[in-house]
TrEMBL record:
PROSITE patterns: PROKAR_LIPOPROTEIN (PS51257). InterPro entries: V-ATPase_116kDa_su, V-type_ATPase_116kDa_su_euka. Residues 94-121 form a coiled coil. It comes from Grantiella picta. This is V-type proton ATPase subunit a. Keywords: Coiled coil, Hydrogen ion transport, Ion transport, Membrane, Transmembrane, Transmembrane helix, Transport. It is found in: Membrane. The chain crosses the membrane at residues 406-430, 451-469, 545-566, 578-598, 640-662. Belongs to the V-ATPase 116 kDa subunit family. Residues 690-711 are annotated as: Disordered.
């Protein structure tokens, strides 16, 4: 629990890895997730590092995996998540994964290309078949002799090849047939008429069944056209116009017998292609099954392998280039686990020389490490969104586990609504191990699921505040009998029938004996929901409650800073920072809380009309004046308020200048900085290649003694300290005012929730 209230102790350490076992050692460390690596080659380009070839190979495999995943999505399949976290593959296993993935990708490309070709060919044959069938209706021969004559009315279905007219025709009639997109029919017909000057007969009819558009993949109903013309020049114009409109033109046999034979041949080809296409689809499904089964595991393995090589690129080789040296930030209590992981990695690689870890002293500030679990992770994320605490500072997340849901419940206080939220979160908590809940793809759902414990507490606190507000789905509930007695008021008043008829609203006077029998056992009396001044009562109650809770919350946050000052042994900050902050906060806004409670205690229902306004008193306090019409709450109120304002204003320069002046005076005293390890004299001998001076590995004696700073560092540090303290002072003083006003949102949103529900 120590790491929950304060970040863990972290140290800088060096890892000495043998070249042959470096990969397996980093893999073992990565599985345990204990370290944060530092880049020892900051000036080396990523393309000039030792393992850039391996990283590129991983990226090529990731490209192949992306193609395979796109093919799965195109087939309407969603790859299942990896059931377990596989380890990073060894070198031979990585080659096998690369070969198998490339082989599957090549098979998918070939099968997909063949399927697309077969589908296109089948689509063309079906379109050609429909064209011939529709053309057969237009160019069919007349009925045999003896049948009744057909009328000569013009119709779209009228045969345009009448043998009785052939003897009057000197030229041969030719045909152009095909299909066209329905959106282009009107423009196509208009251009044909204008270009050919009417020397043609064009017929258009929709295809009986919709077919896929090869350009967009959508299913549309194509339009079949049959154009008869005279003359070769007209035919060339028609074909050119058809090409411009991206029409699919098909040959049209002249004789009816040849058309019948062509239709029969098309039926046979369509059947054969359908069989081949079905077999191709089955083979493609088998390949996709293999991809869906292996792809999740391959992707995780390659991601881990790439991460390992990226870490190895951050390491430096020693002079002999047989040992890699890495610098890491490591929790102090996990050093033994790190050594055990290095020993395990060396054993797995078959190396006879074990790798080891060595702690290194440093003056740098380590990163913040706060361990979380499934319950605290959501609250820690909220705190980190506002800012991550510095190293070894107090972590406010444990306290936010209570304060955040409770402040939400103040705005959302309703038993019914809180119960619905609580049950929804309880369902997610009880079934949190379900893969369907954990592995969803909807981002909004995942956000709800990750914050299930937060929602659970928010619902529970909303139920509690709902009982205080006495609201269930915005309706008052009578759990206990009301403390107000209407009968007693009626017995002690002159309410007649005429009075009741002319006064729709009646006033209950608590000063009448027996009308008000004491406070309600828990929460707000339900009779207030029937009162006409219900909103005024809740306005006053919730506004004062929001101010009181907000100032208490801010004061608690200031008190937490005491633990930081004591932990870092900066006791001067207790006097120069904590004390002025508390004087400023309590002298102004703490006094406001005192006035609220004092007014509640001093004035009763009998003299409530004589109670002064707290708001006017608070304004007069800043103006150093008094209002004769607004009576004081207690004797000597004006001098007390004047002293509090003066103390609050006097605490501001102390807060602004106290810490910078103390540190400036403290830095003037000569002192040396000693680290926990002796530093050899003489010239610097670099342990790592390409490492900057000033790092913990290559630190010289002069660097250590001066802390790695230049002679002007004191003036620079003092300027930074003063600027930081000025920002802190302005932010704190303005924040006390703005945050107090901001807490009034609790009052406003609580009323809005009660009214809108």
């Amino acid at each position: 629990m120590g790491s929950l209230f304060r970040s863990e102790e972290v140290c800088l350490a060096q890892l000495f890895l043998q070249s042959a076992s470096a990969y397996s050692c980093i893999s073992e460390l990565g599985e345990r997730g204990l370290l944060e690596f530092r880049d020892l080659n900051p000036k080396v380009s990523p393309f000039q590092r030792r393992f850039v070839g391996e990283v590129r190979r991983c990226e090529e495999m990731e490209k192949t995996f992306t193609f395979l995943q796109q093919e799965l999505r195109g087939a309407g399949r969603v790859p299942a998540p990896c059931p377990e976290s596989p380890r990073a593959p060894a070198a031979r296993e990585a080659l096998r994964v690369q070969e198998q993935s490339e082989q599957l990708a090549q098979e998918l490309r070939e099968v997909t290309r063949n399927r697309a070709s077969l589908r296109g060919r089948l689509r063309d044959l079906r379109q050609y078949l429909h064209v011939l069938r529709e053309g057969q209706r237009f160019t069919s021969l007349p009925a045999p002799l003896g049948s009744p004559p057909r009328p000569r009315a013009l119709s779209d279905r009228e045969p345009i090849l009448d043998p009785s007219l052939h003897q009057h025709l000197e030229r041969k009639i030719n045909f152009v047939t095909g299909v066209i997109h329905p959106w282009r029919v009107t423009a196509f017909e208009r251009l044909l008429w204008r270009a050919c000057r009417g020397y043609l007969v064009a017929s258009f009819v929709e295809m009986p069944e919709p077919m896929e558009d090869p350009a967009t993949g959508e299913s549309i109903t194509w339009v079949i056209f049959l154009i008869s013309y005279w003359g070769e020049q007209i035919g060339q114009k028609i074909r050119k116009i058809s090409d411009c409109f991206h029409c699919q033109v098909y040959p049209y046999p002249e004789g009816e017998a040849s058309r019948t034979d062509t239709i029969t041949g098309l039926h046979s080809q369509i059947q054969d292609l359908s069989v081949v296409l079905e077999e191709t689809e089955q083979y493609l499904a088998q390949v996709l099954d293999k991809v869906a089964l292996a792809l999740p595991t391959w992707r995780v393995q390659v991601q881990k392998m790439k991460a390992i090589y990226l870490i190895l690129n951050q390491c430096s080789f020693d002079v002999t280039e047989k040992c890699l040296i890495a610098e890491v930030w490591c929790p102090v209590r996990d050093l033994t686990q790190v050594q055990d992981a290095l020993r395990q990695g060396s054993y797995q690689s078959g190396s006879s020389v074990e790798c080891f870890v060595q702690r290194v002293p440093t003056s740098e500030s380590p990163p913040t490490l706060i361990r979380t679990n499934k319950f605290t992770a959501g609250f820690q994320s909220i705190v980190d969104a506002y800012g991550v605490a510095s190293y070894q500072e107090v972590n406010p997340a444990p306290y936010a586990i209570i304060t955040f849901p409770f402040i939400f419940a103040i705005m959302f206080g309703d038993v019914g609504h809180g119960l619905l939220m609580f049950l929804f979160a309880l369902w997610m908590v009880l079934f949190e191990a379900s893969p369907r809940l954990r592995q969803g793809t909807n981002e909004i759902w995942l956000m709800f699921f990750e914050g299930r414990y937060l929602i659970l507490l928010m619902g529970a606190f909303s139920i509690y505040t709902g009982f205080i507000y006495n609201e269930c789905f915005s309706k008052a509930t009578t759990i206990f009998p009301s403390a107000w007695s209407v009968a007693t008021m009626a017995n002690h008043s002159s309410w007649s029938s005429e009075y009741l008829a002319t006064h729709p609203s009646l006033t209950l006077d608590p000063n009448v004996t027996g009308v008000f029998r004491g406070p309600y056992p828990f929460g707000i009396d339900p009779i207030w929901s029937l009162a006409t001044n219900h909103l005024n009562f809740l306005n006053s109650f919730k506004m004062k409650m929001s101010v009181v809770l907000g100032i208490v919350h801010m004061g608690f946050g200031v008190v937490l800073g005491v633990f930081n000052h004591l932990h870092f042994k900066q006791r001067h900050r207790l006097v120069l920072e904590f004390l002025p902050e508390m004087i400023f906060l309590l002298g102004l806004f703490g006094y406001l809380v005192f006035l609220i409670f004092y007014k509640w205690i001093k004035f009763s229902a009998a003299d409530s009309r004589l109670a002064p306004s707290i708001l006017i008193h608070f304004i007069d306090m800043f103006l150093f004046t008094s209002n004769a019409e607004n009576l004081p709450l207690y004797p000597g109120q004006v001098p007390v308020q004047t002293v509090l304002v003066v103390l609050a204003l006097a605490s501001v320069p102390v807060l602004l200048l106290g810490t910078p002046l103390y540190q400036w005076c403290h830095q003037r005293a000569p002192r040396t900085v000693r680290l926990g390890a002796p530093v050899a004299t003489g010239e610097q001998e670099p342990l790592l290649e390409g490492q900057e001076a000033g790092n913990s590995v290559n630190a010289t004696k002069e660097d250590v003694e001066s802390g790695g700073h230049s002679p002007d560092a004191k003036r620079l540090d003092f300027a930074e300290i003063f600027m930081h303290q000025a920002i802190h002072t302005i932010e704190y003083c303005l924040g006390c005012v703005s945050n107090t006003a901001s807490y009034l949102r609790l009052w406003a949103l609580s009323l809005a929730h009660a009214r809108e529900s």
